[in-house]
Amino acid sequence: MKSTAMLVGFVTASLVLSLFSCAPSHQGTFPEAMSYGNTGYRGYNITKAQDDFLTYIRKNPCGSLLFSPGMVLFNITGFVTAATIPNATVYMAVTPTTSFSHCRYVVDHCFPFWRATMRNSTTFSFTHIPPGSYVLFLKRTSFSASQGFPLPHEFNRSGYELDIVFQGGDSSCSMGVFTIKRRE
Q1: 153 and 97 inside one domain
Q2: Both 155 and 102 in a single domain?
Q3: Which of 31, 93, 109, 155 is most buried (CB neighbours < 10 A)?
Q4: Residues 143, 175: one domain?
């Protein structure tokens, strides 16, 4: 028992030391690294590395969630246009565009940030949703007979609007695509 504790301590110490010895070296001094001076993101002075990271996030084919302090978050209740099997799951993922082909890509390749078990075989709800574009989807195996489509029904508005872009799908899934944006 004592030898196991010593071994765990040795491995932990070795890992910590290897992290410090393998840390990337910086080119230039710290003030030079901070002198990038890009103020493109909400007026903040950011470094080149931060700018590259934000560019990567914005170009991510799966979309991204960027939260900021004081951001308005929404609760959404929805329904499916046909009854589902008991305990079916509806998923919701961020989508950078609302085209049918891109939403199918998101369904097949991207992580759904939210999921909910259907209530009463037709209703669902999600909480803490920031403004953006989303795809709701159910797998075809969620339906026993006819295939329905998930649609948002209600959300707390507070100066924002929810636009349903389309509902559709194919033999593998049903989708409902919508956006939440500030009312113009």
Answers
A1: yes
A2: yes
A3: 93
A4: yes
Look up residue 79 and give its two tokens. Answer: 């329904």
If asked whether residues 51 and 98 sit together in one domain, one would say no
**CA separation (Å) from 33 to 8, 20, 45, 80, 165?**
38, 20, 12, 52, 43
The predicted-structure confidence for 39-83, as pLDDT tens digits, reads as follows 554 555 667 777 777 777 677 788 777 777 888 888 899 999 988
Domain count within the chain: 2
Q: Which residues pair with 133 in a beta bridge?
A: 179
Instruction: Kindly report the pTM of this predicted structure.
Output: 0.68
80 and 50 fall within a common domain: no
d(CA 47, CA 52): 9
Q: Which tokens in the block code for residue 54?
A: 């934000």
Residue 34 structural domain: 26-59
Helix extents (H) in 22-78: 30-33, 48-59
The H-or-E segment that residue 46 falls in is: none
Distance CA 116, CA 60 (A): 25
Helix extents (H) in the chain: 2-21, 30-33, 48-59, 100-109
Q: What is the pLDDT of residue 20?
A: 32
Q: How far apart are CA 82 and CA 121, in angstroms?
A: 8
- Report if residue 100 sits inside a domain: yes
